[in-house]
Every structure is written in structure tokens, then in C-alpha cells.
Amino acid sequence: MGLTRLEASQTGTVYIVGAGPGPGDLITVRGLRALEKADVVIADALVPRSFFDDVGIIVPDNGIIWRDAQEPALTQDQVNDLLIEHALTGRTVVRLKGGDPGVFGRGWEEAEVLSRHGIAWEIIPGLTAGTALPAQAGLPLTLRGEARSFALATGRLDGDEVNPELPRADSVLLYMSVSALPRISEQLLADGWSPRTPVTIIERGGLLWERRFRGGLGEIAQIAQEVKLTSPALIVVGEAARRRVEMPTILFTGLDPANFRTLGTLLHWPALQVVEAPDAGEQVAHALEAGQSARRVTFIFTSKAGVRAFFAAATGQARCSKDLLTGARLIAAGPGTAQMLERYGVCGATVPEVPGSEGIIGGLSERERGLCVLIQGAQATNALECELFARFEGNGGGVVRLKLHRAVPHCELGGTALPEHDAIFFTSPSGVRAYQDVFGADAFRREVLCIGEQTKAALRSLDVEGKVVHPGVAESSRSGRSSSSAT
Ligand code: SAH
Fold first, then answer.
1. Atom 15 (ligand 1): residue with closest C-alpha?
2. pLDDT of res. 481
3. Looking at residue 59, what is its pLDDT?
4. Strand, coil or helix: what is 371?
5. pTM to 2 decimals?
6. I need a surface site. Which of 11, 86, 228, 297 has the fewest CB within 10 A?
7. Which of 54, 96, 234 to mutate to test the pocket of ligand 1 (most atoms within 8 A of CB)?
């Protein structure tokens, strides 16, 4: 085989990459590097649509083939054909698989097919659901003196037959078991597990609308039926499902949970989604045209969503858009916004020391020259815009505000009843309203946390007392931590 692969130098390479379960930031650095050089990505159904946003890779639209986007879904043979076809035309191909390609992932089967065609391949491991999801849910797979072993198994065989040889270990992590759960739990009972054995089900682990359920082995199939459990779900049986770590489950309703994970174990149920303005392309074209005749142009980006919307609107092909900003002065409201610009190949944005509008204005001189292009969501007030006018007006300058995006209630919110949680976290007044509209008082029946005074005021208008918590600061729900930092 080695020789065949050496001879394959004229063809493209296929990287069979484990994406990890759920959000893109769980991919390995090696996997990310492969993605960065890919011409074509063929993703499987477990990889969420938001994956490339999460990892910050901009792949041209025609470079991604979503297996689940096809109607009907592609068969394994069709996937193999696509891998071969693209590699033989010299392209670098990433076959992106949920979890680890070698754990119930058919990665090795694909590698064999590629070898038969003399195509070079590499398998890049990923985090598998069985270990990553319990870790995110606060379930220890091993614990000194208490839990010494765990086993990963599929609950069923091809077709719908139950795996007749379910392993014995302190914990068993069952994949692909949703449809056959009643028979699988019967078999575990017959194998000698107690009906009181703790079980946790993690449905859509790490993805939007994640839910978790707990119960004894004797009742878990009934619970799954009652809650209408869907795939993908991981069934955690045994010691790992026994809750020992004091960690609140937080229903996080903001757009990006990245900075909030220290608060507890998060379920991401976003209240809002960002949509682009229908005339975003015209707005950007107009601003760029105005910029051509200005002596100096300052672009101010106030959010990551604004950066995305700008590039999406500036060209269909985001990769080329960085040239648009060449020569301009760039200001990003915070480090996250600057990083987002870098992902689009635009470096050198200034980030004010004080975050937000205050820092942006503080960094400008009293009288600025040239044109200022402010990219800010449609819902923001015009306070920043007015302050900028005061600085840029006169001297042939001016301010153009681009309202390229707005946050609207998430179209999938309310598809399912709220999951069990210890606290709910709101990051904006419009998020509070979206939850109120869909779930009513039920949304606020547990502890309510929020990010700032405006959100707190929105809660108060509904007679709900919210507690302001800063990201990265553990709050009182976690035992043993002080709540003094909450304002
Ligand atoms: N290669 C993957 C597994 C593919 S088999 C890995 O290593 O994780 C598909 C099964 O994996 C699903 O039926 C489910 O049991 C589990 N799974 C994968 N991703 C999951 C997720 N985000 N949430 C819950 N279960 C998941």
C-alpha cells in the first residue's frame, strides 16, 4: 500500500477528519489545519451547519457538500465516489466526520476505498461523543476509588437488532441506541445491571437545543418515550451517570456561549438568530463607492455579527473581500470582533482598551477627517452614530451607518418544551422578550441570570428579578463560590 500511496502524488489528498461532537471549537489543531487548506469539504450529518462559523474558517459556498443537505441523503457509495472524483482532479479534500472517524464512523472503510484508487489519505482523530459529551455534562468517566472503567459500545447492530454483547464496565456509553432503547435496557437488566443503575441521556450534546434526562435503568426507556427522544443521543449507563460534581445546568439563551462555560454546564438554546438586511449588498456598495472619493476612510465594526454580515454582503465570495478594506483605518469594538476580521484576512484593526462605544469614541480625536463607515446592527440605538457625527462632520467628511443585520427571535425556539435546568441566562432585552413570547412565565421559573443592567431592566418589566453576572465569573449556583462579584 505504501508504494501506491507514494505514486499518488498527482492526485489530491483526502483528510478524514474527526470534527468532535457538536460545536466547531472542539476540532483538533491538526484537523483545523487540514480544513484550512481544503478545496472541498464533504461533511456528514452529525456536523452542525454552524461548524465553520465556530471554527472561523471561510469556505466558499460551493466548496462544502453537506451530506444531510442532499435529498435523499447520500449513500456511502455516493460519498466514496465524491471523495474519489474530487481527489482525482487534484483537489485537497476534507471528509469531515462527527466525533472521531474511527469510532462508529466508517472512516477506515473510506480510507480503504481511497487506497484502492491510489489516493493519499490521512486520518485525523477527533473527540468522540462517548468521552467528550459526559465531560461537558459534568459526568466523570473515571474517578479515583469509585469509577475505574468505561466501555464504548453501539446499542444495536446493522438493522435494528440489539447488540447481543453489551460490555460490562463501571460505565457503558451507548451510541446509536435511541430507536432500540426499550430492548437495550431490557438486555442490560438481563445481563445483571440493577434497575436502579443511574442513566443519563445526552441528546444533541453540544449542539443547539441540547437536552439531558436522568433516571434509573428500569425506567429510562419510558422516560425516553415520554420526552420523544431523538437522535443523536448518547446513553450513559452506570457510575458516570451518578451525579457527584456540584455544577449547575444553565440554559444559555445568548448567541455565543464561548465565554460563559465557567458558570456551569450549558445547554445552548438561543433566543435570537441574526438575519441579514435584504438590502445589505446595496448598503455596502454605496458605502464603498462613497469611500472611493474620500481622502480617508475609517471602518468601525461593533460586533462579530457585523463583520460577518459585511463580508457576506460585500461579495458572494468572502475570501476575496479583504481587499475592500485595504488602506482604510479599521476599528473593532472588542478583541472578538478583531479576530473575526482576521478570519476574513483583514489584520491591523485597532481595539480600544475600554470595550464598546465609549472606547471607540475615546480613541478618536475631536476633529476627524474623511468618511466614517459604521457597521452596527439595526437594533442598536443611534447614540454612537451621533457621537461619530460630531467628530467627523465638516472637512468634507461624514458618517455612513450600515445596518446590515438584526437579531430576530430564533425560528426554532419553542419547537420543544424547556429542558430541565438550574438557571437561565439572558444576554439581551430582546432575548428576554423572545423567551417570554414563546414560553411565558415558564421561562423564568428557575434562577434568572443576565449580562447587564439593560437586560435586568427588561426582566424587571416582567416582574422577574434577574441577577447580573459577568462572563468568566462563577456565580452563586456553584457551591463554594462567592457571589460578591455579581452586581
Ligand atoms: N464518530 C462518532 C460516532 C458516530 S455514530 C463519534 O466518534 O462520536 C453516531 C452516534 O454517535 C449517535 O447515534 C450518538 O449515539 C452519538 N453521537 C454523536 N454525536 C452526538 C451528539 N452531538 N450528541 C449525542 N450523541 C452523539
1. 175
2. 36
3. 66
4. strand
5. 0.87
6. 228
7. 234
